Amino acid sequence: MSSEPYDVVVAGAGPAGLLTAALVAGRGHRVLLLERDPCPGGLPGGVVRERSTAVNVVIEDERVTGLRHLPQGEPARTVRARCVVDASGGDSPLRRHVAGARGSSGLAVYACFTADTGRAEGPRRFPFGNGWFWTAPAGDGLTQVGAVVRPDLADRVRADPEGALSGFAEACPPVRDLLAGAVRAAGGPGRIRVRPHWSYADHRLWRPGMLLVGDAACAVGAQPLPVLGTHLACRGAGLAARALDGFLRGTADEAEAFAEFEHRYREAYDSVLHDGIPQDGGPHDGILPGEGLHPEGTFPPPPVPFAGAARAGVSR
Ligand SMILES: Cc1cc2nc3c(=O)[nH]c(=O)nc-3n(C[C@H](O)[C@H](O)[C@H](O)COP(=O)(O)OP(=O)(O)OC[C@H]3O[C@@H](n4cnc5c(N)ncnc54)[C@H](O)[C@@H]3O)c2cc1C
Question: What PANTHER family does the entry give (predicted)?
Fold first, then answer.
């Protein structure tokens, strides 16, 4: 038993933080979950402290050893833990201690058109050479049509958003056909919008004593495709819980377990970004238990070679 009061302290009780905390506590580890807002429900086997804002991490000899937090109406406190999980979302105040500049960001350009897909089954996604399109019913007979493209196309998109969007549509036959004869909606819905950092994945998702999970680590953007964002956050939680469990039990070396977490999480990000959620297994396929906690609590051999982690830029 370690001298730290907690094995893991998790900052943020969104989908990523809640699931990570629940999975790790479910394996018998001592978990504290901090949430700056009111937090519905509890954490079986763990402790929840709501209305408490994580403000910084404690670093000793290059290792994260705890968290500074500010309970509402009380002085700041320090809590020590063997590992800190940052799941405090896209505006995390903690992620800078792990990650540098955000990488792989994609740019979105989108607007609503009179093309009517209201009878269709819902949002759809179409890959093309520069990225992918989404189409989604937007009510009143309108369809939102947007392209998410590589960041190196930013200048082209910003210089002429309308020309860029129609050029991308021409390169994507299903969208070209959908828009044939359609016109842009009147007023606000028809305005062409450009959003940078629609999707991103940080280059580093861990350091000794700390993991980034959920939007703090990577995101595929606020998008009309249901469940992609939360699916990815939950995938990250499952992978984080697996790595933490292996490390805390002593069945895995921390660096190897965390590097594998990072590698597989970045693979999941790429896969969700480019292919969406695999339809064959449903949205939760791959989160539990295969990529979550091993039934015996051991750390099974990684299904991908660690050379993959090196390819993904891990060097520690
Ligand atoms: C406008 C919009 C629409 C979206 N629509 C969809 C959709 O339809 N389907 C979908 O799957 N995804 C959608 N997403 C993406 C999805 O919401 C996120 O990917 C997902 O919520 C990420 O979960 P998370 O737990 O990482 O972060 P969050 O859900 O952002 O949770 C972070 C939590 O941390 C807390 N927190 C923040 N800072 C601190 C701190 N300093 N200390 C303590 N707690 C803190 C927050 O209060 C919050 O509870 C959308 C996102 C946006 C922005």
Answer: FAD-BINDING DOMAIN-CONTAINING PROTEIN, FAD-BINDING PROTEIN
Return the ligand 1 atom nearest residue 236 CA. 26
Average pLDDT, the chain: 83
Instruction: Tokens for 116, please give them.
Output: 């009517």
Ligand 1 mean position, distance from CA 20 (Å): 14
Give the integer Cα–Cα distance in Å for 139 and 178: 16
Distance 246 CA to ligand 1 centre (A): 27
**CA 173, CA 196: separation in Å to the nearest integer?**
25
**Same domain (yes/no): 55, 114:** no
The total domain count for the chain is: 2
- Domain with 300 in it: what CATH number? 3.50.50.60
How far is the C-alpha of 267 from the C-alpha of 277, rounded, in Å?
13
Separation between Cα atoms, residue 305 and residue 299, nearest integer Å: 14
Domain boundary among 137, 168, 197: 197
284 lies in the same domain as 149:
no
User: Pick from 163, 197, 231: which residue ends a domain?
Assistant: 197
Q: What is the pTM of this model?
A: 0.76
Pocket of ligand 1 (CB under 6 A): 11-17, 34-37, 53-54, 87-89, 93, 214-216, 219, 222, 226-230, 233
Asked whether residue 295 carries a pLDDT value surpassing 90, the answer given is: no
Atom of ligand 1 minimally distant from the CA of 37 = 47
